[in-house]
Task: structure prediction
Amino acid sequence: MSNDAAEVLIGHVSGVHGLKGWVKVHSFTDPRDAIFDYQPWLLGEARKDVVLERGQPNGKTLIALFPGVDSVEQARVLVGQEIRVPRTALPTASDGQWYWSDLIGLAVINRDGVPLGRVRSMIETGANDVMVLEGERERLVPFVTGQVIEHVDLEAGEIRVDWHPDD
Result:
């Protein structure tokens, strides 16, 4: 298993908050403040193990304080750093649910056997999630189980969809 497969991206440091070393955190978890439940964080390219001193909601954003970071200058260095956790830190997805990280790279094939591409990324739109497919062209396909998504087979590495190749 590759290092990336053994880890899951759950957010990133998006900015500085105040003058005392706090940073803003953008979370990919649902609910968004669940990001604080997964510790330690593997921070940045170096995957430095970090256990937060504090993490909390602050209005519409999340803020965090890292050990040893007590100035705005030190906090600025962290901006843009990805936050990952070991895959084993996450609960097992229930039936009919998948982590986005499990879907990335899967082949998407329509019900007629026409390959539509591979999942490059996922987008949250509010109404439903959307797969961004790369192939002979980029496609946006809604991730709506029972309507568009017919079957997800992680072991086979594919998603079967009811989607016309011209859409």
